[in-house]
Amino acid sequence: MSGKLLVPYVTGGIRPDWTRYVEEYARHGADMIEIGLPFSDPILDGPTIQQASHHALQQGVTVRSILDDLTGLTVDVPLIAMTYYNLVIHNPSFCADLAAAGVSGLIVPDVPIDEVDELEATATAAGVDLVLLAAPTTTPSRLAAIAQRSRRFVYAVSVMGTTGERDRLGDSALRLARELRAMTDLPVLLGFGISQPAHAVAAADAADGVVVASALMRMVLDGAGPEEIGATIAEFRAALDGVVVGVPG
Questions:
Q1: Closest among 104, 51, 49 to 81, alpha carbons compared
Q2: What is the mean pLDDT of each run of 10 residues along the chain (249 residues)?
Q3: Does residue 154 sit in helix, strand or coil?
Q4: Which of 17, 23, 31, 34 is catalytic?
Q5: Which long-range contacts (CB under 8 A, 24 or more apart) does 119-122 make?
Q6: What single DSSP character describes residue 113?
Q7: What's the rounded Cα separation, in Å, for the pair 69 and 18?
Q8: What are the positions of the active site (predicted)?
């Protein structure tokens, strides 16, 4: 890996032209793109992502409609779906449907590591990488298991709690990223609360990159179009490109 990774998020269906945000993300330097599949009871999402999901669902968006939108999309970076197990468990072909739409990764935050076997097998069979999450309160033995079984990258949650914009990164987030990096050769990405380029730079001192979600969706909900969001992604990209890659601090 030659640089720090940038993974922006968009809620599928947040606007009729939502795939243009995906295109702008890719054009301005995203390494992967996380696509939120809206769910009516998003237990880990803070108010901004909840509002984005509610807005999409009010427009009649479904998993099928989002995947149909993605099927006609051509971007040169991997797409990672994020959703909840309730949507996955009721559709036996869920992972195969993702793969058919060009989605190559899946994050399901409400499935704990000791209950992941069936989903892991289904995702692997479909050629979809199952990305696992770790939190600052995760025990060392579970951290090791998550680091071993996650695919594509390990998602390090910066705080215990829901997603959302925050003023600063806690020391526990940086400590978690360093612990995980010692356990795996996979990239370790910090998410939850990466709201500004300065946060991304701070996170990159310990992690291999960042996931940026709520800050972007707040801008979209406030009316920002694809080009404006693309310019914001470019700012995050420039900030991360200024980080010297080497031994974490």
A1: 104
A2: 89 96 98 94 76 92 96 94 92 96 96 93 97 93 96 85 51 91 96 90 94 95 97 97 65
A3: strand
A4: 34
A5: 119/85, 119/88, 120/149, 122/94, 122/95
A6: G
A7: 9
A8: 34 (proton acceptor), 45 (proton acceptor)
